[in-house]
Amino acid sequence: MPDLSPVIASCTRWLLNAYPPPAGAFSRALAESQARQATALAAALCYPTPMDVQLLDLLGPGGADRLDRLAGHDPRPDDAAWRTWVDETVVSWAACFLADPALASHAHQTLATTEHHTGAGALRRLTEPGIRDTEAAVLLRHPDLLEPVAALHRSRLGERLDVEGAPTA
Question: Residue 74: CA atoms inside 13 Å, Cβ hemisphere, count?
Answer without folding.
Answer: 0
